[in-house]
Amino acid sequence: MHGIILGGILEREDSSESRNQLVSQQDKEKPPYWPSIKRSAGAHRIATFLREDGWDIEVIDFWPAWTREELVELFKSRVKEDTIWVGLSAMFPLGGAGKRNQDKVEEIVENLRYIKSLYPDLTFVGGSQNISATLAYPLDYYIGGFGEYGIRELLKKLTAQEHNCIVHKRFYWGAERNVIECRSDYPAWPFPNAHVKYEDRDFVMPTEVPTLELGRGCKFQCKFCSFTVLGVKGDHSRCPESLEEELKDNYYKWGINTYSISDETINDSPAKLKKLADVIRKLPFEVNLAGYLRADLLVSNPDTWEDIWDMGLWSHFYGIESFNHEAAKYVGKGMNPDRLKDGLLKVQDWFKERGKYRASIGMIIGLPHETRETFLEGRKWVLDNMPGQTYSMAPLMIADGEMLKMATNPSEFDRTAFASGVFTRTTEEEMGVDMNEIPDSLHELVNFYLKADGVANWQHNTMNTWEAWKLFAEVASDQLAPSMLGPHIFFYHRYLTGGLYNINDMMKTFNEIEPLGSRHIAFHNDFINDYKQKKLAA
Asked: Which has more confidence, 261 or 209?
């Protein structure tokens, strides 16, 4: 039996993730700026899982970048007598600020609607970590969460086999949907299949930076975060044998040795780090990794640095959120700021002495107890003490109304911010919104999110939504020294824009701040176009 999965783009091509970690790499076999082409990891993981069940699954990557004519031509050549279903993988909701972006969303949705009309007998299924990411699409079923087991049971149902498929009727965005809630009904652990196996028809290139999954879930419960525990205790990481197999396959078949790790917290366990480092130490080739490390654990456990280095994990993202002690403690990150700063400098020196180190400091604007002054003080410390590294930032956004109802795994802030009394809802008038206080280039962006459905305007003891956006505009408009590749907008808590189609808008908005932007876009577009031509010709 045959199925097709439309793999999306990991919609952070325009954020710090695709640049900050890799700029300093000197490997002559790769471009010096390492443009990161990111396929939808979920699409390929689901495909690998189902192939082991006997399904013939082809992944069509980067599908939002395909025109209607190209999609029609592709489907004519791919749909067979035994084609049962079409899957669609997404990570973030479609949409964002700006008419151009909204028009592109409408175009993508209409393209899918047209393809669906050509093949009425096929079942169209959308899957995403958060159910809201696929609700804009006209689909037969919507899957939220880690979907391997859920899609397996759905396909059994579609092929009249004995199954345990649990379908909920949910009324979202004005329509009743068939929803499969994997977070509550199907386990994410143990890994059914942690590895991804690419095929010749995927046309994988050595310049890619795929996503690598080492483990699932996070044992910490930061109040702003939507990626919390999976409900199990112990080691959430994959077995060493599968990791070794994936790394060797990708290196010897495709020439890939560089990955972005998807784990929410890589260094949550010294034992896990050692287990994974032992695998990579034995490899006859170099591995380069980038990913999320909890800075307080890194500072507190210098014994883990050797394992982290031996893993090739020299590109780090630290979700600091705030150097204000009270604000950090409130959200679940309470290390003394002086100790944290001292530790970050020691980490930086230790890795630099060994030859490679990139870091990005993530900060959230608008946490309780944070003021404009304390945020800017923390930012200044990063600029002064970690030159050549990056920082990223985003105003705090809190889901509300129907958006909260649709969230597969809402954060504690989303669920309890207003009930706790720490936050109160407010209006533009009460906040004193005056767009003349921010640059013209940011009016559309800021106004969009102040008025966005499902996003609450808030105030607390030290700041409100408008003050957070003003501070964002102030920093985003600030021209930094050439050594800083920033400021970057890292869409940590609530994501501000969509995918590929919005890169040019972002570059226009932030003008010359990002010196690598034009080269990155050109490489990205050339890669996508080459991939499409190969797929159409296959």
From this structure: 261
